[in-house]
Amino acid sequence: MLRSVLSPRAGSGRPHPGRPRHDGLLTAVARGLSRTRTSLLLLACWLLIMAAAGPLSSKIYAVVNNDATSYLPRTAESTQVYSILAHQARPQPADATVVYVRGTGITSPDRARVAADVSRFAKLTGGLPVGQPIPSQDGKALVVNVPLPPDRVTQDVSAMRSQIASDRRAGLEVSVTGPAGQMADFVGAWAGLDTMILVATMAVVTVILLLTYRSPVLWLLPLLTASLSYTVAAAAVYLLASRTGMVISSETTGVLPVLVFGAGTDYALLLIARYREELHRHHDRHAAMAAAWRRAVPAIAASAATVSISLLCLGAARMSSTRALGPAGAIGIVSTLIAMTTLLPAILVLAGRWIFWPSTPRPGTVPSAARGPWGRIGQAIGRRPRPVWAGAALVLAVLAAGLAQSRFGLSQTQVFRTTPDFAVGQSMLARHYPAGVSDPALIVAPGDRVTAVETAARNVSGVAQVLPARPLGDRSVVPVVLRDAPATSGAEATVQRLRTAVHPIRGAMVGGDSATDLDSRIATVDDMKLVMPLVLAVILVVLVVLLRSLVAPVMLLATVVLSYLASLGAGSLLFQHVFGFAAMDYSVPLMVFVFLVALGVDYTIFLMTRVREEVAERGHRRGVLAGLRGTGGVITSAGVVLAATFSVLGVMPLVFMVEMGVLVALGVLIDTFIVRSIVVPALALDLGWATWWPALPRPNRERGSGHEEAA
Questions:
Q1: Which of 268, 266, 260, 261 is nearest to 292 (CA)?
Q2: What are the pLDDT digits (tens) for 685-702?
Q3: Using only C-alpha atoms, what is the Rg of the chain?
Q4: Which of 372, 379, 391, 437 is 20 to 30 A (C-alpha) from 119?
Q5: Residue 513 φ/ψ, nearest 5 degrees
Q6: Is domain 35-63+192-368 given the CATH code 3.40.190.100 in the classification?
């Protein structure tokens, strides 16, 4: 069995007849790594690694691709339409829709203003003709479609908006919307966001470490080590993406630092807590680090492996963006594990005891963790464990009931926390034109089937207008204006009806932004059905191997799933009644599931490996309570750190990032303070020895007589 990160005694490190062979190897490695010469060598190696990784890490943003069609499977219909359009002789432009509205009716001076704008906009199109102004039926609006080169959308939309702002007319509203307007606003929302997330994450971790250690120096070490591990991870992800074509989205680059700093700080807290404890027992700091490393690293490695394997399960997803988050996140976790188990111990050993000042640990003194409240909490749980876990589970079930009020699916305008410019224009359009006029669905069909396609499309409910077909080699594109706004549930339903109507026509396919969102939702739902069971199966196997039990892993997995459902339900209520969000993004439940289940089991591994070791020494009841007492403080601190780190995403301008951050933070807190602290110990006490069936824990004969007090 892997040794616990928080085992009460370090042991002598001498071979013992009852000790597994790998434990002797682990002891030898721990002693070697804790030497001054080895620490200096590790520090030099990390400096060389940083010299190579530093220049590469910033290049990760050069491979970011936020094109929605690149996220989809190649077999998706909208992807196939996009591929056909992209392989034409000339890149397909992005249309910027400029809408002019005067509540009392468009005037002659307004028309002159529009004509002047058209002349200026023509300089941005690269020779493509600007569309003629289209009046609304009520005479209160005009629309101009401006085709922009796809590689200059952000700059050109910004130039158009600047031109409009420089010539304001009283009573005339003007806005730039359409696919180009949306793209520019989305890019603008992400601009500088990665740096903001990184800085905010470091700030949050700094504050928490200062509060945790109350030391002017010690907090720097985990922060520095996590920063270096993030640099290495970013460089590795860049190299992987640039050589394999893996799709890296801004979502991935936003989550990566949060994951690395959150997990890294957790690992640092656990290792440093164990090192501090050993410094109370050893005069030699090298011996203290050897003992701490030998006890801490196996459990940390097991937890990191669980999270990494869970993330790699995302590789089975159909969505390219979801698939890429798996290896990127796993790289981040592995990089963090290596840094926290090599670089951090080296720095701690070289620094000496003074790094803990003003609470410097001295041999013979009692560690502060031994005086914590977790012993009293354990005794309270132990008096009546069944009512305790049943009551806590009822609370979680009530929170999970919030899922009944959940709404899923965000429109283009609902993705942003504030109202972007393109959403203002979309609202203006919807008052005077069919809502989908700025972003029509696109039907691609063989040229000799155009008439049949147009006839079929006109008869579809939800279609406002079928525009003239555009020849495209041996195919044609038929734009179809929908009555509903792009990427809404109504527009997606119309796309489904369009596909049903035109699919009998050979070679006809429906694409466009609304179709892309529909295909994304379908692929995401399929990914949930595939990835969620896969993650649960993988974690179950890991727990069975780690705990050598069939009952305990099933129990633990059930509590983690209940914690996830409770977080999702409580989060749904928060988003609707506190944040005022219209719905939850379809991609959020799967991402949150992977993070919460993996990280929830992560903390449970620290608890249950310690509990199993204590049970072997003390018996079941006393062992469970001792395990809770020994792990309570440091794991709770780690949970708070991780929750606070993910809460950084709560200040982001994009709704789905806020939802992800809030749900993970909420779930980690629920798992830390309810599931891991109350439900799991109470269930273990209630089940008794059956928890460990079929392999009961064996006594560890290397323990000394002072074990009871040390725990």
A1: 268
A2: 888 888 888 877 765 544
A3: 30
A4: 437
A5: -65, -45
A6: no
